[in-house]
Amino acid sequence: MGILLFAVTSCSASSASSEGAVSCDPTATPTTGDLPDDVNAVLVDKCQGCHSGPPQHHAPFPLVSFEDTQEQFGLTSKRKWQRMSEVIAPDGLPHMPYGTAPPLTSDEMTTLQSWFGKCAMPVPEGMGHDLLDDGGVEQVR
Ligand code: HEC
């Protein structure tokens, strides 16, 4: 009896702490900076065919700069990166990449979701990729 109780308690404690590891306060992420190189590479290959500036193929907004990913998503309390995380999930709707566009590879999915899991933090201005929007020097490496 004592052993069973102990097992149940330790199991629920460990799942609570792993939830804590991925939760974050999206409003705590800085709103300026650059996209990390690996994240930028996925957006260029799999998203910017439509989410370019200006957007193509009826995409609703560009996803070309770090600042783009931090904007508010519509009238919701989410930032766009949080919505990005939802729509790339296997059951996300509308599923992205859209329609017949090439799907994310599992490596690309891991790159994006691990960035989102760390609250989509920027690298400092000038250290990553940023094409538009922050009024700084255009950085393309
Ligand atoms: C082939 C063009 C295309 C590609 C590639 C594409 N999108 Fe989209 N995206 C769209 C269109 C069109 C919509 C609007 C869909 C709708 O409202 O039904 C959209 C909507 C979205 C939305 C808003 C969803 C909502 O609830 O309104 C997000 C976020 C998004 N895309 C993220 C991405 C990400 C991240 C990628 C790359 C992994 C990507 N998209 C690739 C065309 C594209």
In short:
With 141 residues, the chain is an all-alpha fold. It has five helices and no strands.
Walk me through this protein's architecture.
It is a single chain. With 141 residues, this protein is an all-alpha fold. The chain has a domain at 23-117. The protein contains 5 helices and no strands. It has helices at 2-22, 37-46, 66-70, 80-88, 106-117. α4 (80-88) runs antiparallel to α5 (106-117). The chain starts with a helix and ends in a 24-residue tail after the last helix. The model is unreliable at 1-22 and 135-141 (pLDDT under 50). It binds heme C. Heme C is lined by residues 46-47, 49-51, 57-60, 80, 83-84, 87-88, 94, 96-99, 101, 104.
List the ligand species. Answer: heme C
Stretches where pLDDT is under 50 for at least 5 consecutive residues are: 1-22, 135-141
Q: Nearest-angstrom radius of gyration?
A: 18 Å
Look at the helices and sheets and give the structural class.
Answer: mainly alpha
SSE topology sketch:
Blueprint lengths: L1 H21 L14 H10 L19 H5 L9 H9 L17 H12 L24
Summary keywords:
141 residues; mainly alpha; binds heme C; disordered N terminus
